[in-house]
Batch of 2 targets.
Target 1
Amino acid sequence: MSDCIFCKIASGDIPGDIVYQDDRVIAVNDIDPKAPVHILIMPKAHIPSLNEIDNSNKDIMAHILTVAANLAKTKGVAEKGYRIVNNCGVQGGQSVNHIHFHLLGGRSLTWPPG
Ligand code: 5GP
Ligand code: ZN
């Protein structure tokens, strides 16, 4: 999608601090980190939000979570714990309309979120 910032990072049109990528998924350090480890994991293909996930594209969700679990290990937060967050829609706090999952770790995280 031409005006999507995460599509542009996925295609290499604008730089991203890439920590992992394969044919379907890219993971980048968040530009405004909220924890010592704050990585965004997303499909390279443009999917606006979790609202657009159904049986036709559900496999990418398992792949993203597997990448997240592997990154948690390689970034050294798996043992102490971490959080995976998806903000969906306006009330969910989604600010970039290209589905992505936040991997947050490296400090104690409070609950509930704001
Ligand atoms: P959301 O609020 O949609 O759940 O999360 C969007 C995230 O994208 C925010 O944490 C924000 O800091 C991050 N972000 C916005 N623009 C960029 C960018 O150009 N590069 C990177 N790496 N992260 C971005
Ligand atoms: Zn996009």
Target 2
Amino acid sequence: MKNKSLVSINDFTKEECLRIIELAGEFEKNPVQDILKGKVVATLFFEPSTRTRLSFESAVNKLGGRIIGFSETASTSVSKGESLKDTIKTVANYSDLIVMRHPIEGSARYASEVSMVPVVNAGDGANQHPTQTLLDLFSIKKTQGTLENLNICMVGDLKYGRTVHSLLIAMSDFNATFNFISPKTLQMPSEYKKLLDEKGLKYYEHEEIHDTFKHADIVYVTRVQKERFSDPIDYEKVKNAFIVKNKMLEGTKPNLKVMHPLPRVNEIDTDVDDNEKAYYFQQAKNGVYTRQAIVASILGLI
Ligand code: CP
């Protein structure tokens, strides 16, 4: 993984993903180390973020590295019209690794091609969010004891939700069965269903939750991605399509965990938060250990 960019979850092999999970477990036991001393990580966020940016920064700080970057472009030369290429080539002069979130699909791949240092995709439009997927894999392994043969319900905006796209690809290596629950207009794109067809994996599409949670090991809920809609009326029609409530978890499997990449708007009722099956805040915490593993691996320090 040394010097490798991480733009798509496909950039890491199954073995490399498993190695990141293993390392994340080691960082969880021993999160404060000095292995990034002298290293500079740039976090370039062209779109808002709380968890991804701050957990990367927390990860680097705990390992003794330094952070530079921006969380919005207004105070940078992007606002003067500087191109992405020029921004990346410049920041690559100042850092050992670039972590970038950008609204345009494919922007992270482009950045990795023009950068002299590795680029980690922290979300590119509706495309992919591979570091979220690695922390999701870590969270699933930690709570289920295995990644194999799990029943996964994905609920909400499956069209624009980049986290479910990356997670589907990753879990397709572990013989998962999927239930996709979404409004018709926000269904899982056909390219992802084609991948499952090619691998001979089972998936079912639903427009209502009904009893889909009954056999689930993981219920993965996503926010309807308001920022991806060109017509606000279309967003209004689906914004509250699914709200997961505590009552819906009655009679579900004891090992079931409710996950969500966050931020949450209305799609999980706060009455779920105290249920032992709610896992989204621990999931966010797992992001620090997983991102420690990603940064240290790419910088070749472990
Ligand atoms: N999960 C996630 O990407 O959250 P942020 O948008 O807050 O980074």
